[in-house]
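Practice problem: predict the structure.
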Amino acid sequence: MKGFMAITFPVRYRMVFTTKTTYNIMVFISMICAFNSALYFKRGCDFYFDHTIRIWTFGREPCSVWLAFYIDMVYNTGLLIIIGILDIFTLIHLKNRKKVSRRLFETLFDSYLK
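Answer:
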C-alpha cells in the first residue's frame, strides 16, 4: 500500500504516512496477526503436523473446518486479490508515467535542437 501511494499520489503520501500514522498501521496489523494466531489456541480448533503425510493439517472438528475455510482460505485469498489489484494499478500507473516522461524528454530534446 505504501508503494502504491508513493507512486500514485506522491504529495499525499507524505501527509498520509507520517510517523504516527505508520505506527498506528503497524499496531493495527500486529493486532490482526495476534487475533489470527490466538484462534489456533482455542480448544477444538486443531491444527497439527501429520507425520504420515508430512504436512500441516486441520482437524475434523467444526471449529477446525471453520478455521481451514475462513481463516486459511478466504482470508489469504482476499489478501492475494487485494495485493494483486494494488500491484496491477501500480504497474499501470508506472507504465503511463513512463510514457509521459518519454514525451516530455522528446519535447525538451526537440526544442533544444531547434
